[in-house]
Amino acid sequence: MPKTRPQNHRPCRVVLACLVALAAGTAAGQTEINRRYTETSLGPFPPEVRESAVLSPDGRHLGYIDSSDGQRVVLDGKPQPVYDRVAALQFSPDGSQLAYAAQRGGRWCIVAGDRESPGYERVGPPQFSPDSARLAYVALLDVGRRAVVVDGQPGRPCDLISAGLIEFSPDSARMAYGAMREGKCCLVVDGEELGPFDDLGTRTGYCFSADGERLAFAALVEGKVCVIIDGRQQPPCYDVGDLVFSPDGRRVAYTAQERKDGPWSVVLDGEKQQPYDTIGDGSLQFSPDSARLAYAAQQAGRWLAVVDGQPGEAHERIAQMLFSPDSKRLACVVGDGQTEAVVIDGHSERGFDAIGGGSLVFSPNSRRLGYIARSGWARFVVVDGLRKARYTMVGYLTFTPDGRHYAHTALDKTGAFSVVDGRAAAHRYESIWNPPGAQLLFDYRDRFHYLAVKEGEAFLVEEKIE
Q1: Strands 347-348 and 339-344
Q2: pLDDT tens for residues 147-185?
Q3: What pTM did the predictor assign?
Q4: Sheet of 78-83: strands edge to edge?
Q5: Which among 33, 60, 174, 248 is most buried, taking Cβ atoms within 10 Å?
């Protein structure tokens, strides 16, 4: 049963553990913050199962593999059926379903909820559509061939599935994967085959626009790599890197190298931009309003942020780049020598030993910026250019939906805990967990939750700022 406790509850005695998640925060200038919290048990969570543990994207459910008697999945403390082996646990995006691969009697199936698929020689990891309504996976058939199974129906058998890569459109209505038959590749889109091609660019993947109406991918045609957008082949090149649609789906950009050992350029809406020695992998990004494009480029051994086609100041390295929600501001992490600093709106903030990878975050109203930094042994958050309290570890900094408060988790010698506007919660845990890549998860402007562990038990902890 959930237990409601006031903020002044005496903290539990805990064992220190690695911090794995985040927590919540309070507004600048606020003199006092009151918080209440509830703990809902998700069952036993012994140390030996933690390597296999997965959290749902909504941060409310926990699954892991128990190998004490055969193998079985334990979901929110409830044991599931026993199999010879289980693997590849995957929650649906909405957190309502858990699917996994299971073996019994030499045959593999996909288990989703209380349903088992037919048995196959092997199965690949399950993959849900973005709306959580569809499920796909690769199956090895008895005849030694493979098929993609979608919504329980196997597609046409083939020799190989390209890198096992299955791509749903963001609206979940469409799906694409690469297949090989008799030495030739094709792209299967909604059951229709495009091609044949000599090969498919698995590094770029198969890219749908947000509305699912457009499709772009890279393919090898007569020894040349070509980007194909909406069925139209672009000029051939030697190699292709990032390939992205703008959020509104009207624009498309990709990085291309025309010849081996030659320079790289960004091709935006069919127009080649200024060449550079190289373009940073994964750096190509549109602003939320689709009007702007930014990326990191290297020239003569130095890195620069290129925004709207204009190169900025050169640095030894450039890490994360991030547009604000209103698309008017850009922040990036730059490095020179032994220090790293955040550059926001063209102005460099104070340098530190390191800036946490992927930790840059704007408030939803675009007015505030925060990130995690390190100096020596100490970790801390920096909000609005000001360094906050030091801890052993800090994780998952975020802002409340109204932008008034900042929040994160921290670890010190007393345990792991949440922090709101610099004020630490009284309750302590061995560790706090959060879904990979997620920031602190707010349900409302004044309520957030996370998963925590203490004394061999997992809890869903929900906090309310009062």
Answers
A1: antiparallel
A2: 999 999 999 999 999 877 899 999 999 999 999 988 889
A3: 0.88
A4: 54-55, 62-66, 71-75, 78-83
A5: 60
